């Protein structure tokens, strides 16, 4: 078997495994078909928190209002991912305020860090980093989820805009994102710039973890195998086939940002599908973005780099001081 066939076989295996993982554990929840309903009888129902069918639209600490990408209706989840209300956004927002009072939750104080996960993942993938940030008195982490395989990057950016607009804080808003989440934030910043809205006064710093700031090689090889686009979705297709249209909409953050890339330290790299050093998914070179205040390559792998202790330490260092801790 020649090298081209070997790569195709490897790519097909990766895509098949990806599809199986996405199919496990998501809950579409078709309990409401009418987005306009004011309020509905609700029984506290356990959920999986929303993975590839739900988009966060309002988040307060661990309470969140989500929108279903299939039906368009909303639901309110508590800190245990139990559904506490459903129906219209207004109804769920009102119920969130009631829940805040019942639980005697204090307003957000000081700086907030918005966490955003990557492609094919959920906010659960950022949980360990969230918990690490929660241990520090300087920051309140807000872990945001979006259905990465059900919508284009611009749609996810619009949902993020709703979440950020709903944050009532007296300090700065910082960002930490993994993989595709970085492009969602950059698109959001580009949207603000297009509207001539100031993106500097409210924001602090940003840490990019394994960001595909340039068209990722692996997307060009893997994504086209999903001809129906049912597994990978619109955002992935933008990485593979719509990059020329997407890239101009991605703003360079107009505030300090640092980049943490994963690599093995060799020219040959780790992944046979990629050229150059890589973290198995994104090459070191494609993570680079002009204007970064700091840039480091760490011996970590893409999918779980946010769980690495060194990554977490350096993320905290950059958020606090604007540079990564020396290693």
Biggest beta sheet summary:
6 strands, parallel
Strand line-up in the sheet with most strands? 7-6-8-9-10-11
- Number of helical segments with 4 or more residues: 10
Secondary-structure element series: HEEEEEHEHEHEHEHHHEHEH
Can you describe what's shown?
The chain is of the alpha/beta class. The chain folds into 2 domains: 28-106, no CATH class; 107-321, Alpha/Beta hydrolase fold, catalytic domain (Rossmann fold), CATH 3.40.50.1820. The chain is 33% helix and 19% strand. It is built from 10 helices and 11 strands. The chain has helices spanning 3-23, 89-103, 127-134, 153-165, 180-194, 217-222, 233-240, 243-246, 284-287, 309-321; strands spanning 45-46, 54-60, 63-68, 74-77, 82-87, 111-116, 139-144, 173-178, 203-209, 257-262, 294-298. The strands form 2 sheets. The protein has a 6-stranded parallel β-sheet with strand order 7-6-8-9-10-11, with helices on both faces. The protein has a 5-stranded antiparallel β-sheet with strand order 1-5-4-3-2. The longest helix has 21 residues, at 3-23. The protein starts with a helix and ends in a 6-residue tail after the last helix. Residues 8-25 and 32-38 have low confidence and may be disordered.
Short description:
This protein has 327 residues and is α/β, with parallel strands linked by helices. The chain has 2 domains: 28-106, no CATH class; 107-321, Rossmann fold. It has helices at residues 3-23, 89-103, 127-134, 153-165, 180-194, 217-222, 233-240, 243-246, 284-287, 309-321; strands at 45-46, 54-60, 63-68, 74-77, 82-87, 111-116, 139-144, 173-178, 203-209, 257-262, 294-298.
């Amino acid at each position: 078997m020649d090298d081209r066939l070997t790569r195709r076989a490897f790519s097909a295996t990766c895509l098949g495994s990806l599809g199986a993982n996405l199919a496990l554990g998501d809950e579409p929840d078709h309990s409401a078909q009418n987005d306009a309903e004011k309020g509905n009888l609700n029984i506290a129902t356990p959920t999986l928190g929303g993975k590839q069918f739900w988009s966060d639209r309002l988040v307060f600490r661990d309470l969140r209002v989500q929108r279903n990408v299939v039906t368009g209706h909303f639901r309110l989840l508590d800190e245990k991912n139990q559904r506490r209300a459903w129906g219209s956004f207004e109804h769920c927002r009102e119920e969130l305020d009631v829940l805040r009072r019942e639980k005697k939750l204090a307003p957000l104080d000081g700086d907030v860090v918005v966490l955003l996960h990557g492609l094919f993942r959920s906010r659960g993938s950022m949980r360990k980093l969230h918990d690490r940030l929660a241990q520090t008195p300087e920051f309140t982490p807000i872990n945001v989820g979006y259905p990465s395989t059900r919508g284009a990057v611009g749609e996810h950016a619009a949902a993020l805009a709703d979440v950020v607009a709903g944050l009532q804080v007296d300090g700065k808003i910082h960002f930490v994102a993994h993989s595709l989440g970085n492009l969602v934030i950059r698109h959001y910043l580009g949207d603000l710039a297009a509207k001539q809205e100031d993106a500097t006064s409210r924001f602090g710093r940003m840490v990019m973890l394994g960001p595909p700031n340039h068209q990722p090689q692996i997307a060009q090889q893997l994504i086209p195998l999903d001809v129906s686009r049912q597994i990978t979705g619109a955002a992935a297709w933008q990485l593979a086939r719509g990059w020329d249209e997407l890239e101009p909409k991605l703003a360079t953050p107009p505030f300090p940002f640092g980049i943490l890339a994963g690599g093995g330290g060799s020219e040959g790299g780790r992944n046979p599908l990629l050229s150059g050093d890589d973290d198995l998914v994104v090459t070191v070179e494609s993570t680079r973005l002009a204007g970064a205040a700091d840039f480091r390559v760490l011996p970590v792998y893409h999918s779980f780099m946010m769980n690495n202790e060194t990554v977490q330490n350096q993320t905290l260092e950059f958020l606090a001081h604007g540079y990564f801790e020396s290693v």
